[in-house]
Amino acid sequence: MSEPQRNKPLVSSSEAWQQLQQHATEMASQKPLSVLFEQNPERFQQHSIQLGSLLFDYSKQRVTTETLKQLMALARQQQLPEKIQQLLQGASLNQTEGRAALHTALRSPADAKIIVDGRNVVTDVHQVRQQMTTFVERVREGVWRGFTGKRITDVVNIGVGGSDLGPKMICRALRPGYGEKEPIRVHFISSIDGAHAADILPRLSPETTLFVVSSKTFTTTDTLANAAAAREWLAQASQHPRAVAQHFVAATADPQQAERWGVPQENVFPFWEWVGGRYSMWSSIGLTIALYLGMERFDALLQGAQQIDQHFSEAPLEQNIPVLMGLIGVWNSNFLGMPGQVVLPYAAHLSHLSNYLEQLEMESLGKSVTQQGGVVDYDTGPIIWGGVGSNAQHAFYQLLHQGTRFAPMDFILPIDPAGAEAEQYQLTIANCLAQSRAFMVGQQSEDPHRLHPGNRPSSTLLLDALTPHTLGMVVALYEHKVFVQSVIWEINPFDQFGVELGKKIATQLHQHLIGEGEAGEYDGYDSSTRGLLQRIEQRGKQR
Amino acid sequence: MKITVYGNTTSALVTAGCLADIGNEVLLVTPQMPSPPYAEPGLRKLLQQQQSGRLQSTESEQAGAQHGVVQYLLLESDQLQQATTIVKQIGALNQQGCTLVNRTTFPLGSSEQLFTVLQQAQQQADNSQPPCRLVVEPDFMTEGRMIQNFRRPDRILLGCDDEVGVDVMRELYTPYNRNRDVVMVMSPRSAELTKFACNAMLATRISFMNEMADVAEDLGADIEEVRQGMGSDHRIGYDYLYPGTGFGGPHFARDVASLADTVRAAGSRGQLLDAVLEINRQQREVLFRKAWRHFNMDLQGRLFAIWGVAYKPGSSDIRNAPGIHLIKVLLDQGAEVRLYDPEAMENSRNLLGEQPGLQYGEDAQQVLDGADALMVVTEWKPFWSPDFEALVQRMRTPVIFDGRNLYSPQKMAQLGITYYAVGRGYTAEKI
User: Fold this and answer.
1) What average pLDDT does the segment A257-276 reach?
2) Are B297 and A239 in contact (CB < 8 Å)?
3) Fewer CB within 10 Å of terminal CB in chain A, N or C?
4) Least confident of A61-65, A134-138, B67-71, B77-81
């Protein structure tokens, strides 16, 4: 990487950025949101977009027409429209790792063409999808049998990070079709400490349990440790050489590695280097989802995402939901100085969405250098957290309402209830709308303890219902929002070098802990690490 | 007596034929006069004798409603909708203060609902008819012995709250109730539940024995010896103690499932019945599981000869038969199946049709040619003592999966046949 590139002026010194800073200063002394609403009866119509079964309302964000105009200028200055096309067409945007990021190809229709290294990757994608369809139907219809000839009743997903969070979030959010008498139960083992496995395996029967081992490299320590424990558990029930073949399948970008581990070739469901872990649930990593929901619903999930891909590609910036989400995030973070972002689904089934988005956003946007290696002098990815909104009201909302720090919020609300309790569900709707309004209007009070400052911005994603299709839309919106922000901040959202140092040190420490380290190797460590190790060793001797 | 019988079930034909035979004027209401659907012994002859005289049939429900002082419902158990239409007609048209006899196994509580419908129709017609009465008479006839069951019943169970109704039925059944009085009277609701409870009890015995067979295999005991030891205890008795490929047939399993649903809906804990049904679901695949292990989890291209598809010997009925499920799961694994049943070939063809890997055999011997294994599913008499030497000659590998425990394990061993039965301490090596 050459110096001139590294020294390229940062976006923060660009004209569009400077103007936005100026604009933000002016806005600070201007009218609060409540007044903007009073003065403009069209504010909702002007600042909301209906796309199929999804409505995006950003009218409660602290933006004016002028703000949006300037944000669009920033986007164009950063060549966002060109970058979007490059992303969707498979340009090598992941520069640090020299490859494309083509999660969108995973949901492309079969007749699409996306050429990478002279190969139409859509063909490969649909070939694996076919392999998944056949397998999923065999398992769900009871044709696939365990070692004693019984059908599979339980699927255990063994994976961590993107191989865990996506499938887990979706399986918690959606349900198999109604009328399905005995749906397959799904379980997730991710933790390296073995606690998940210890909780889950004793409740299952080896003869009816199928393991999906998911790892992009098939070398992930956490996953292989858990997979080995599962194989050992199976071996206690059957030593037959074919048993592993009947009970273990793999989703990986390194099929040979999985075969070496013991999964027969026909049970390996491949994906590709150009699928990032946190963008991978659309690939064979979604096998657990498909086993649980059925292929039809898995396809609907992909179609929902595809609808957003198309919208992202075709809609003008001003009407482009992920673009608006991304730019408003930049505005809140870099110009209004808000350090975080909260995700608040008003749907208990979306309990794992914030965990999922924490990885998607923070692993993607937690960077401090530009693609060219220059050190940024502005804030990048905000700290993301969240939870089921109606429960979070009883937990951390206090800080959002009256604390000195504040983070903008995304409310996500399905209109139709998930259960049959339509009447009770009206409480959920009322609470969601009440909160976004309360944050916006605030409350004057003589008693300072009861004062709500208000003017606290939020967006609302209103879904007709929580379905595979609308959930696919929501996830794709956030994926593209992340991309938009990475383009503005000039950072690479597709690498994650930050996770490696800890792994490296852990490998050394592990050697030491199991007695295979070299003597004196840790003398160079800080006194804290050494002190902790000492106490741990003492405790080990006491046992 | 003038009797109307609704339905074209075998039970309806038997009831109509027998009642005509003892001098009643019977009108059978049926869409078409069926030829006896399932080879019920003696039925064809009985109907031929009566059809010209006291047994008449009609398609007209109106005619039926007007005809009988006793009105029998003998429909299929999924025909509750038709039954509702029928009782409306009876309420509107019958002028004789009839007795409605429900012998159909509808869901619990249906008889009283139907009778309410009848009474409402009667009120609407408002032609000051004398009141009708409800009798629930559970059908305990077993296929293959139905005429005998009807004429010499172990008991006549009448669910009726009305003395007149009981008297009518006693009079009608006098010829069958001479030796000793076998009439039992109880409430309609108790009569319905008695029928379900009997089936549930029998199903429970079978599932219990299947579970014991599993245990016997694990412990190296022989369930056949255990069964005889148990049966000799007069508190237990020998009936319905046979382990095998699970219970099936047109009504049995469905009745138990229906009772389990009713128990659940009533908010009671139906744990035992759920277990009985679950064990039976597993048991239907017991031969498959043994084959799966024997052939190392790979049945692709293996040829299985199947002896028997009917849910029991003496019947051509394959509805809900364990053998049908077995054939499906074998085909699912890419195995080939060649089946033979002395009576159920036509029904099998109609149900299963032409499928890749499925062959309809010519006789018990021919299906063995080149087979990798034989599966005995129904204990038809000709299967009890086959020519084993010829069998070994014909088969590619002499392997028998016996779902009815027909043969002696010792003899099979002498003949060099690999023999798997149900619960006889001889199982595939644990894998």
Assistant:
1) 96
2) no
3) C
4) B77-81
Task: State whether residue B218 sits within 8 Å of chain A by CB.
Answer: no
B298–A242: do the CB atoms touch at under 8 Å? yes
B248, pLDDT greater than 50: yes
Mean pLDDT within A129-141:
96
Contact list, B296 vs chain A (CB under 8 Å): 240, 242
Contact assignment for B431 to A238 by CB distance below 8 Å: yes
Q: Please identify which of the residues A3, A26, A141, A394 carries the catalytic annotation.
A: A394
d(CA A23, CA A267): 57
Average pLDDT, chain B: 91
Q: Is B418 helix (H, G, I), strand (E, B) or coil?
A: strand
Question: pLDDT category, A1, cuts 50, 70, 90?
Answer: very low
Using the structure block, give the residue that is written with the tokens 């604009």.
Answer: A23
Instruction: Give percent helix, percent strand, percent coil of chain A, each to the nearest 5.
Output: 55, 10, 35
Place B41 in a pLDDT band, splitting at 50, 70 and 90.
Answer: confident
Beta bridge partners of A212: A157, A249
Which of A138, A143, A144 should be substituted to probe chain B, the one whose Cβ sees the most B Cβ atoms within 10 Å? Answer: A143
Clarify whether residues B68 and B153 are in a common domain: yes
Q: ∠ CA B180-B185-B189 to the nearest 5 degrees? A: 145
Q: Which residues 6+ apart lie within 8 Å of A246 measured at CB?
A: A144, A145, A146, A147, B297
User: Do residues A144 and A262 share a domain?
Assistant: yes
Per-residue pLDDT of A201-213, as tens digits, reads 999 999 999 999 9
Q: Are residues B156 and B217 in the same domain?
A: no
Closest residue of A to B284, CA-based?
Answer: A150
Question: Is residue A179 predicted with pLDDT exceeding 70?
Answer: no
Domain of A476, in residue numbers: 32-91+315-489
End-to-end CA distance of chain A: 54
Q: Are residues A184 and A114 in the same domain?
A: yes
| A163, A214 Cβ separation under 8 angstroms | yes
What is the Cα–Cα distance from A471 to A170, expressed in whole angstroms?
A: 8
Q: What is the ipTM of this complex?
A: 0.83
Based on the fold, state whether residues B240 and B131 are members of the same structural domain: no
Query: Which residue of chain A is at minimal alpha-carbon distance from B297?
Result: A147
- Helices A295-314 and A468-489 pack at an angle, to 10 degrees, of 40
Q: With an 8 Å Cβ cutoff, are A240 and B332 in contact?
A: no
pLDDT digits (tens, 9 = 90+) for B285-326: 999 999 999 999 999 999 999 999 999 888 888 988 999 999
Q: Is A267 on the interface with B (CB under 8 A)?
A: no
Categorize the per-residue pLDDT at B192 as very low, low, confident or very high, splitting at 50, 70 and 90.
very high
Nearest chain B Cα distance for residue A290, angstroms: 21
Q: Chain B window 292-311: which residues touch A at a Cβ cutoff of 8 Å?
A: 292-293, 296-298
**A337 shares its domain with A263:** no
Position B428 confidence tier, pLDDT thresholds 50, 70, 90? very low
A205 touches chain B (CB under 8 A): no
Q: Which of A180 and B431 is assigned the larger pLDDT?
A: A180
Nearest CA in chain B to A141: B332
Residue B310 sits in a domain of what CATH number? 3.40.50.720
Task: Confirm if A360 and A482 have CB atoms less than 8 A apart.
Answer: yes
Domain encompassing residue B26: 2-186
CA of B197 vs chain A CAs: smallest distance (Å): 25
Answer whether B431 sits within 8 Å of A147, measured CB to CB.
yes
B240 and B376 in a common domain: yes
